[in-house]
Amino acid sequence: MDDAQTMSQPAIVVHYHELWLKGRNKRFFVSKLAANLRAALEDLSIEKIERRNDRLIVRLRHENSLKAALQRIEKVSGIAYYAQALPAEPNLESICRAAWEEIEPLSFQNFAVRAKRSDKFFPYRSSEIERVVGKHLLDSLQAAGRPARVKLNDPDVTCRIEITSGPALVYARKIAGPGGLPANTAGKMLCLLSGGFDSAVAAYHMIKRGAHLSFAHFYGTGARPGESSVHVARRIVRQLALWQFTAKLYRVPFEPVQREIVRYAPENCRVLLYRRMMLRIAEVLARRDGALALVTGDSLAQVASQTLQNLVAVEAASKMPVFRPLVGTDKIEIMETARKIGTYDISAEPFHDCCPIFLPRSPALYSNAAELESAEAGLDVDNLIRLAVAGATLEKFRYHGGAVETSEKPPKQTRNAALA
To answer: Which partner for 88 in 94, 178, 302, 343 could form a disulfide, CB atoms 3.0-4.6 Å apart?
Structure first.
């Protein structure tokens, strides 16, 4: 492709987030970010993705791909911000023209110009670029009869100019990215997904830290038509797959396990024993997938089962680490994040949660592991785990070509699954 074509193509400039802190490992994380961008945009008319001076530049073949590309980049973790940028020849005259083309359609009362010169061979310092381009924009605005003025602190619009080793990049519509680390750079985890607001948001926080999550959803029976929790869990995983490209959802029938707990265990411990059994079952599924930890949506003291003592007593049933990214987060913050990531409306739908089945009249608030182990004495724990794992179904999700595809099959059976 010749230089004239490159200059005429729309481009998106992508700035990293905390990848700056990775030192010698930075190359790995930047490569993963570039690969994730390619995966998110693979069916669009993308010419190439370049690395230039600590940023990525997405070059599009056609203008009609721009809107979809910007929408998809919104869900690529590891990005501090991104923007549609106009490429310009690396000279002041071309940069001035591109700057006017960029801000002329915008409505504002004041503006500023900010230049960054990564290519030190460019003959003008950043302050000189800002002065020349700022004067050109001010003169152009006055000639157009627009009463705009320069304002260096907190302007309505900032025209940004980046001098790279290739074309200069000019943009004024900066969009905040999701931050965090690129997807699938921090290892595998399995999330216990309830269908409510909390666990979906907890999963998002771990995905944004680079973890790749599978999901286990425990469901009961007896719901009225249309109220099954399974459809809610499936829609949540479909939404979260947009952030990490692939996902597995294990759907685990849990009522048979609950009935055994109700039959043999003290009433006030029921919910805590449900949760201990869920952790054990999830651990089997997690090990099958090569995951190293579990994730839950617990928030400290939000409900009776989430007092500090109960959280510690429940976690004692798991040999795997249990991550609780929402432990210090309140409900308002959780619901705000759910709205942002698109799971709020899904979780707000009516559905049948398995935990309230056989709910105790007075649940234990301050249990300990020894008490719960004693309460489980009449249970055949290993057999209950095998029963639940054997009844699980597996659904796979893959984000491809702007849509999420699904496939379903029973999970692989292994001998002594409960002891895996």
So the answer is: 94
417 pLDDT band, cuts 50/70/90, is very low
In angstroms, the CA 68 to CA 10 distance is 13
- Phi first, then psi: what are they for 308, rounded to 5°? -60, -45
Residue 375's CB: how many other CB atoms inside 10 A?
21
pLDDT exceeds 50 at position 418: no
Rounded CA separation 37/56 (Å): 10
Give the integer Cα–Cα distance in Å for 170 and 52: 15
CA atoms within 13 A on the CB side of 27: 1
What does the block give as tokens for 120? 């030190």
In the structure, what pLDDT confidence band is assigned to residue 228 with cuts at 50, 70 and 90? Answer: confident
274 DSSP 8-state letter: H
SS3 161: strand
| pTM beyond cutoff 0.70 | yes
The alpha carbon torsion through 73, 77, 79, 81 (nearest 10 deg) reads: 60
**Domains recognised in the chain with CATH numbers:** 3-179 (3.30.2130.30), 188-419 (3.40.50.620)
Of the candidates 228, 257, 207, 261, the residue with the CA atom closest to the CA atom of residue 387: 257
Beta carbons of 6 and 167 less than 8 angstroms apart: yes
